[in-house]
Amino acid sequence: QVQLVESGGGLGQSGGSLRLSCAASGRTFSSYIWGWFRQAPGKEREFVAAINWSASSTYYVDSVKGRFTISRDNVKNTVYLQMNNLKPEDTVVYFCAARAGHSSPYVYYTQERQYDYWGQGTQVTVDS
């Protein structure tokens, strides 16, 4: 059974940093594309970042460019989201997602429906 489990959320300070992790089990995700999304109450899930299978390509929503960094460790079957210079508007639930990529270099998958597996989400709260 495939499981994606996020961790690392919690309370952060405005201008501070948090690092989210998403550990996958149940299969090998080395050829998959990983994505991070976030969702505020009552709003649609928003794309944040994506990384291709080899980490040669990444893509970010404009609001996090220069502040967030997505990375992956294929040996550990884990994807990370390093969040720096946190802002109060980053206070939402963050979800990791995986898409079967067949080792494709393409990374511009920004829609929920384009991903096959999802984590349960982790809350990030930025104290202003």
Salient structural properties:
128 residues, mainly beta, seven-stranded mixed beta sheet, four-stranded antiparallel beta sheet, 0% helix
Description:
The protein is an all-beta fold. It is built from no helices and 11 strands. Strands 2, 4, 5, 6, 9, 10 and 11 form a 7-stranded mixed sheet that branches. It has a 4-stranded antiparallel sheet with strand order 1-3-8-7, with no helix packed on it. Strand 4 and strand 5 form a beta hairpin.
Compile the SSE list and pairings:
Elements: E1 3-7, E2 10-13, E3 18-25, E4 33-39, E5 46-51, E6 58-60, E7 68-73, E8 78-83, E9 92-99, E10 117-118, E11 122-127
Parallel strand pairs: 2-11
Antiparallel strand pairs: 1-3, 3-8, 4-5, 4-9, 5-6, 7-8, 9-10, 9-11
The share of residues in extended strands comes to over 45%
- Kindly name the structural category: mainly beta
Query: What is the average of the pLDDT values?
Result: 95
Number of strands: 11
